[in-house]
Write a structure and sequence with these properties.
The structure is a homodimer of 147-residue chains. By secondary structure, chain A is an alpha+beta fold. The first copy, chain A, has one domain: Arc Repressor Mutant, subunit A (Orthogonal Bundle), CATH 1.10.10. Chain A contains 6 helices and 6 strands, in the order ααβααββββαβα. In chain A, a hairpin with a 5-residue loop joins strand 4 and strand 5. Strand 6 of chain A pairs antiparallel with strand 6 of chain B, so a sheet runs across the interface. The structure holds a DNA duplex (30 and 30 nucleotides).
Chain lengths: 147, 147
DNA sequence: CTCCTAAATGGAAATCATTTTCATTTATAT
DNA sequence: ATATAAATGAAAATGATTTCCATTTAGGAG
């Protein structure tokens, strides 16, 4: 948690109770959640809580690299998850389609592909994003052989 | 164009003038566009045109693999682009950040990474998506050495 | 510890892309 | 030419997200 307080301070964001609660919420279950999910969680712990606060904070935390934001199913709904990787470290995310856990991994061989793709497409590549979906270890185990 | 008419028929979608116009619109400029962009284009060519028709058709065409849908800037706005690859062929997309051209490429070495990531994360990977942004050949040329 | 100020917050209303509903029109198989 | 399932448009609904603004609060300075 200290790590996050520090990150907030470095980015001139106050460590408000709600911000801390949001971070803890994600840290605790490691699952991705929608703004509405977060709102519901906070509503259970604070007398007052408004949607603007939820959205603003999710955005703030995403901007400073504590959370990651992504869109699923092309359903016009965004999800957020805790970003385990340290800020600035190149990494990608993988989500569990069953329990919605979100994990980071740094393994990425894109650089070795980059040149070839640039040759094939004629593009000069500036950014790449690899997004994975699968089944996490725990879910694999709990599912046993079935599926 | 015949190719697209055939694809429509195979998917039990009628070759309505507006559908054809949408496909032609994307084929012509090869750039990605929002539903609103498409709406504006159609409005210039048809007396009557409604948003529902635009959205429904963009979705239909995406479903049968003629278009590809994606989200940019996490701004809650979706874009569509023509998908050059044949349906079923594994491929990814790259967009030009300058002119918004969208291209396909089949080069993908993900399989060679898959095992390693599965070992590192414990996940069983079901889907992967590689999304690239860069500058296309024409824009590179038109920009000259600058930038 | 108290003050001060910029930052954060909540409620209400606004925004705005997208979707639903439903009556009318149209593409196309027969 | 016709029958019919599919497509369409207008209007209204939806629903996630954002704006506005008055009030509250975190946290550094003194």
């Amino acid at each position: 948690m200290e790590k996050y307080r520090k990150a907030l301070k470095e980015n001139k964001l106050k460590a408000t109770p709600k911000r801390i609660a949001i971070i803890k919420f994600f840290l605790k279950n490691k699952k991705y959640a929608s703004a509405f999910d977060v709102y519901c969680h906070l509503r259970a712990n604070f007398k007052k809580i408004g949607f603007p606060t939820v959205y603003r904070n999710l955005d703030n935390l995403t901007k400073i690299g504590i959370l990651t934001k992504f869109e699923l199913d092309e359903k016009n709904l965004f999800y957020y998850g805790i970003c385990a990787a340290d800020k600035g470290v190149h990494h990608h995310h993988i989500i569990c389609e069953r329990c919605h856990k979100i994990s980071d991994f740094e393994l990425c061989n894109f650089e070795s592909l980059k040149g070839e793709i640039e040759k094939e497409t004629g593009f000069l590549i500036n950014h790449h994003n690899l997004f994975l979906k699968g089944i996490c270890k725990l879910c694999q185990e709990s599912m046993g052989g079935e599926r």
